[in-house]
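Our platform keeps sequence and structure together, in a single record for each protein. Such a record has a labelled line for the sequence and another for the backbone structure tokens. This encoding replaces a full spatial description with a residue-level series of whole-number codes. Below, we set out a record of this kind in full and without editing:
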Amino acid sequence: MKKRYTQVTAFAVLSVTASLLAVSNASAWTLKEAAEPYSGTTIKAVFLDRPGYKAASALIPQFEKETGIKVRTEVVPYENTREKEVLNFVGGGDQDVVLVDVVWMGEFASNKWLVPIKTFTDNPKLADPKLDLPDFFPILLDSFGTWDKTTYGLPFDNYSGLMFYNKCMLKDAGFNGPPKTWDELLNVYAPKLTKPDKNQFAYALQSRRGETQSADSFMRMLWPNGGSLLDAKFKSNLMSPQSQAGLEYRQKLMKYMPPGIVDYDHAEAVNALAQGQVAMITEWSAFYPTLTDPSKSKIGNCLAITTEPTGPAGLKPALGGFSLAVNAKSNAKKQAASWLFIQWITSKEMAKPYLDAGGVSGRMSVYKDPAVQAKFPFVNPMVQSWQGGVPDFRPRFPEWPAVSEVIGEWGSKIMLGQVSVKDGAKTIGDKTEEILNKAGYYDGKKPLLK
């Protein structure tokens, strides 16, 4: 018994010692020391002209001072970003930090253009012990950073579709709050809020041909009605009653939108609310800084925010945003420096500074602070929207860019009345199936990944 006690005691001592060493090693890790081998390295990244990127740019000097690593960013229009990055991968360009939209992840990862984060998290010299991956909202880490059960990027500039509205305009029309359902918006609110002779309209839906039409307009109206682009076998679901109802709804709502709405991108929709032309928009939470900037917005204290309305299928808001990943074609030194930057800008430590600077963090912990909730009224509806999960069969597969072009063309034609909802939807479905069939989705050559 005494011998056993001694063995157990010895084991306990060793365990405690190991734990203390682990804690000691963890506490010993610093960004400055981790970055020493890469001091003087310059890494390049593509940024967008949006608040979250301006926020990150404002914080970058702090990273550069701490690490000696230089971060050079190029601001590119969203519509050109994917093409620029793909050309970079194929042509051997010098981009090191990759910006990955939720709908590009399948393409980028399946082509092996991104480095799995495990390469860095398994390296104690590069992995911050406080990284805490479980602190990211699961829906964000899964949708924006992960493909085929492998994580490639960390969530950055993430947002949910929210309803921004002018509570003063609604009050003048006799409403004490926003519509709770899409049906209520169309049949109760829209008629009273639309005054074409005064250039005033109830609602604006960003619908410009391209990714805005496909992801922000077309798909946005399918999900709340229980529709979807594809069914469980990756065949078109656009002729289903639910999908048809969503697209017909969009056509009905157009009479309460500004003329030329089919050419509205995000900037035009946000500006329409900011200048008092429309009473409501469903837009990304990331545009909150724009709407609260007195130099860009007249809405002032009339601005209010809530979740998107619910439909027959419940609350199914749009989910948008990006992850930051490391370019697999960069050299090892630049890869390590890029990881240190990505790990830092998306860290728990930087979540509050990033939020204060105008960004939207993907970290759960920062939004639990009552002061943060009080300061940023978009937080509670955004967090609520991130609880429900991604709508079924979200288009994250590698063939999405080709499908998006089809939806961009024919979705715009539907809105303009150049083709009926039924005929336009059938054309989109047929062309989508042609693309997926050619890619091998129906002969067993490709798994039906979502």
Remarks:
- The longest helix spans residues 2-28.
- The beta strands are 42-47, 70-75, 97-101, 146-147, 150-151, 153-166, 201-204, 278-284, 303-307, 319-326.
- Residues 223 and 391 are 7 Å apart (CA to CA).
- The domain at 160-319+397-438 is CATH 3.40.190.10 (D-Maltodextrin-Binding Protein; domain 2).
